[in-house]
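Researcher: First entry.
Model:
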Amino acid sequence: MSGRPRSFDPEEVLSQAMLTFWRHGYDATGLSQLEAETGLGRQSLYAAFGDKRALFLAAVDHYFKTVIEPGFVAVLDAPGSGLHNVLSVLQSWETVALAPDFSGCLIGNSVAEMGRRDELMAQVLQRKFELMEAALERALKRARQAGEVPRSLNPKVTAQSLLAMAQGLAVLARVRSDPAVVRNVVTSAKALLK
């Protein structure tokens, strides 16, 4: 006899869990809150995703797949000008950081919250940063090869610097959404490409 079929969409549940962790953080998100936000009881959540930690890791993967890949990696890897693609991403920082419901970056928030206290989570989060850095580096290499940026620009170092600025802005904008500050950070990021 097979088990009862699932009567929920796992992607929708992951989206709701992701938003809950993103808004409140890992520690502050309780199981009762996850139940309320996803519409699933504890047993259904555990059966589908495992414990809270496993659900969080699945939510981080979902965040990367639904937010970072289309809005960051795909933009950087799009055909055409590598410089244009990087500038498009930098410009999007301003729009996103000034949104009234801005909650920062789930990956950056989680690193700041958990640090290295959970080695597996730290490795997963570090890998996501590496993927973002690699996408920036690929676009910057294309821009350098096309002569869009100075030949002296180091794509790896510049990618690391831009990622650090993005994460710093994501943290800062959660508590200080001053348009002038956000614009200054974006302008400084663009200056690294000259």
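Researcher: Second entry.
Model:
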Amino acid sequence: MNALLTPLHDSYASRETGDLLALGIKPDLAEHEYAAVESILSVRGVDINAFREHRQQYLKSAGQQKPADDKLAYMSHRLAAQLIDVIGIALLLALLGLLITVAMPNLFKQTNRAILILWTLYLLFKDGFDGQSLGKRIMGIRVLQRDTEEPCNLTQSFVRNILALTVVDWLFALGSKRSRLGDMLAGTRVVRE
């Protein structure tokens, strides 16, 4: 056992099993503390899988399920994904528009309008396809529903991205939860894969 964890393990080992069971469902323990409690309970014959399930049920019922902050996407990855989506897709669509215009010059105005509409629709609904836009797929991040951990749907993508058009929305992402205002309203979070 790691020498740094030995005092913690010894401290928990001196407690009664019932006390450890109560301690082990608290939402404010660090992962190494959970590991120490589970190690001791396992030696004492407690079914660890049942204990973990009980802890998850308790956290959900208490409305305190601790988000896996260690899985939250880094701000740099989120910004890079946003740049890929905004600029990269704009360039691809502009190239497509140029090719269409060269092939059929009389469609110049209609092509520009269609490209602008496609770009806007992409920006609004980009995260609704398995929780990943092209930029997020490249950066290895995904938008999940906060409650169910399922990928973001089209409605949530629209809600979270309509607000991305404002600077205020991104200021919220600088907080400890790394959630934009759009994420808060849509009930989503962005995680690393």
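Model: Note on the second entry: The chain has a mean pLDDT of 82.
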